[in-house]
Design goal:
The protein has about 200 residues and is an alpha/beta fold. It contains eight helices and seven strands. It is elongated and about 65 Å long. The model has no long low-confidence stretch (mean pLDDT about 90).
C-alpha cells in the first residue's frame, strides 16, 4: 500500500523495483535497509551508481565493460590466447567464464540473443562485427557461449552457419550446462566442465 505522506520513500521503493529480479517486497526491504544506514554509507551507494554510469562503457573492440579509453584490459593483455574467441550474449557472462579458469582467450559480446518473437533479429546484435573480427584477427577457434536457452541455441546455430568456410573451428559449450539455465548463475566447476566438453558445430 502506497503511503501518501512518504513520497520520498515511495519513490525510492519504485526506483529499486526497476532493478531486475527485485519485486515490490524486495524493493521495500532494500529501501528500509538504506534508511537505516548512516548518511555517509547511503551517499557512497548513490555516488557509486552515478560514477559507474559516467565512467563504465563497452570496449569498442569486444564489448566487455571497461573504464579505459580504447581497448579494454582483456583485449590488451599480452598473455591471453589470441587464437581463441569466446562469444557471449551479455557482458555479465564474462565473470563466471573467467572465474572458472578454463578460458584464456579473447571475448566478443553480442548484446543479446536472436529472439524474433520479441523483435530482436540478427541486425540488432554485434554479429556483423563478430564476422569482421574473425576475418581480420585470424582466430583458430570461436567458442559460442550464448545462453543455453532456445534463443541462445538459435543464435549459436545462426552464427555457426555464418562462420562456415571462414577457416575457423566453431564450438559450443557442452557438458554441464542444462537447457534453460542462465550463465550468470552457473558455478565455476560446472562452467569448467562446459568448456572441457564443448562440441564442434
Amino acid at each position: 500500500m502506497e503511503r501518501k505522506d512518504l513520497p520520498a520513500l515511495e519513490r525510492l521503493k519504485a526506483a529499486l523495483a526497476l532493478l531486475p529480479g527485485i519485486g515490490a517486497r524486495s524493493a521495500e526491504r532494500l529501501a528500509f535497509a538504506i534508511l537505516k544506514m548512516d548518511e555517509e554509507k547511503a551517499r557512497e551507494i548513490s555516488e557509486s551508481i552515478l560514477k559507474a554510469k559516467e565512467s563504465v562503457h563497452p570496449c569498442p573492440r569486444c564489448g566487455l565493460m571497461t573504464e579505459k579509453e580504447g581497448d579494454c584490459a582483456i583485449c590488451e593483455e599480452e598473455d591471453r590466447d589470441k587464437g581463441s574467441l569466446c562469444v557471449i550474449s551479455d557482458p555479465k557472462d564474462f565473470y563466471p567464464i573467467e572465474g572458472s579458469g578454463s578460458f584464456h582467450g579473447l571475448y566478443h559480446v553480442l548484446g543479446g540473443s536472436i529472439a524474433l518473437s520479441k523483435g530482436v533479429d540478427p541486425d540488432d546484435l554485434k554479429i556483423d562485427e563478430l564476422v569482421e573480427r574473425v576475418e581480420k584477427e585470424g582466430f583458430r577457434e570461436v567458442i559460442l557461449a550464448t545462453e543455453p536457452t532456445l534463443d541462445g541455441e538459435t543464435t549459436a546455430m545462426y552464427i555457426a552457419n555464418l562462420l562456415k568456410g571462414k577457416g575457423v573451428e566453431v564450438t559450443r559449450l557442452g557438458y554441464g550446462l542444462s537447457l534453460g539455465s542462465s550463465l550468470e548463475y552457473v558455478d565455476t566447476l560446472t562452467m569448467g566442465r562446459a568448456f572441457e566438453g564443448r562440441r564442434k558445430l
